[in-house]
Amino acid sequence: MKFRFEEYNAKEVSEEFWDRLYEYETAYYKFHNPNDPPPNKEALIQRIKADRSHCYFMHSIALTSEDKIVGNCWFWAPSETSPEYEQNKHICWAGVYVLPDYCRQGIGTSLLEKVVKKAQAHDRTTIQMGTNHDSGRAFLKKYGATFTIAGAENRLEMENVDWDLMQSWVDEGKKRNEGVTLESFIECPEEILEEFCEMFTEAVNMAPQGESEFRTNIDGNLRRVYEKQNKEEGWIHQTLISRESDERISGMTEIYYDPREGYKLRQELTGVRPEFRGRGLGKWLKAHNIIYIRETYPEVKRIITGNAEVNAPMLSINNRMGYKKYKAGEGYKFKLDDLTKRLEMK
Fold first, then answer.
1. Protein fold of 153-328
2. Whole-model pTM?
3. 4-124: which CATH topology?
């Protein structure tokens, strides 16, 4: 069977294209998550259409002669206007996906070649990717990808939460952190924007990175860009911070929620600055948040998060909360010169 490959502009495609893309995305999602509801079509389209400032981005698809979409890839790299560029100007991120019935027909390789050309066009020397499936692991290793870090998607079913335990963490947190207050926001208040971005950057980079080369560097401008992008994608992105009696930000946690997929919610970064650890702040923040979720979004049945397997402190908290491993995954990276040679030899 012959296939063709097309890069597309999400702002310019037809409704018929979105129908075909949604059919593909649903099939791919259901293969990897057979017991989950399908993705919401409106949400999927909105996320793909959103503007992405301060980065280079590419979407490409693989099609049969009947115009059925059977694979896709994406490319992302910080641009020169991003505060993350200087540390990461040699790096790009990418994803390559193929429907199971069309694997081992050269589609993944052709999509990977598209990623390589984009990386070359933007002078990147390292491509970072990830997978949570055996076929993806085999594909990445075939072309010489090296392992960076092990992680997992972990899930918490709200019906299994020990709410008395969560309330005890809140009570303990208040007792051990006299004078500390918790504050929540969607748009970061201007008066704490610089300090929050510094704390966020520190929290991300303190988390285990393994052999990943990317390092985060968020400033106020980029935070505003991401806030705008989250709105465009339909996310309610809520951040909870702890502030010491002298107003310093000591810890944070954040969630992403889209009412169109109301049964689930994403728990993202949680971090406490080193000088404030040992007082139960992380537990307090997480427990406060989950009680907030129960009260504010009663339709949420599941919380999804990702963790590095070597992040023992956070895994300990999550395990006690009731999170269970759903799917293991790993990060990998290619050196562009080596990958290019291997593709030429295929």
1. Aminopeptidase (3.40.630)
2. 0.95
3. Aminopeptidase (3.40.630)
